[in-house]
């Protein structure tokens, strides 16, 4: 099925069968590999992308359901919020193996887009469901707090 997607600010023509997860179109057809496959059942967050500015799990989002929506992957992040998150991630050396980090960052940007100064409880609730095999949760939480400070400055 031929369709047009708005991905990272660019219109892209794709050909995918109905029921194909957006994740596989992004990775296999469009060759953007920053979005990761983790579990396939929307439980780990590694495949998180933004759909019209909201974080969604691309492994359980079907390509035919996103035609006309603005899709942003980790490669397309380009805002003051995402710059603050990336700066905080670097400053606090969040990454260990790095596999989950694109999903973590996409979720963190989503949180800070909604709540500029989240509490620890708000961070924990929002980030729940983003699994980190290396258990860098404390660094992720601290980086979200730091990104909030950077944004405030």
TrEMBL record:
Matching PROSITE patterns: 2FE2S_FER_1, 2FE2S_FER_2
Iron among keywords: yes
Keywords carried by this UniProt record: 2Fe-2S, Iron, Iron-sulfur, Metal-binding, Oxidoreductase
InterPro entries membership: 2Fe-2S-bd, 2Fe-2S-bd_dom_sf, 2Fe-2S_ferredoxin-like_sf, 2Fe-2S_ferredoxin-type, 2Fe2S_fd_BS, Beta-grasp_dom_sf, Diverse_Oxidoreductases
Transmembrane segments: none
Residue ranges occupied by any 2Fe-2S ferredoxin-type domain in the UniProt entry: 1-77
One Pfam family matching this protein: Fer2_2
KW Chloroplast (keyword) present: no
Gene3D superfamilies: 3.10.20.30, [2Fe-2S]-binding domain
Name this protein carries in UniProt: (2Fe-2S)-binding protein
UniProt organism field: Ruegeria spongiae
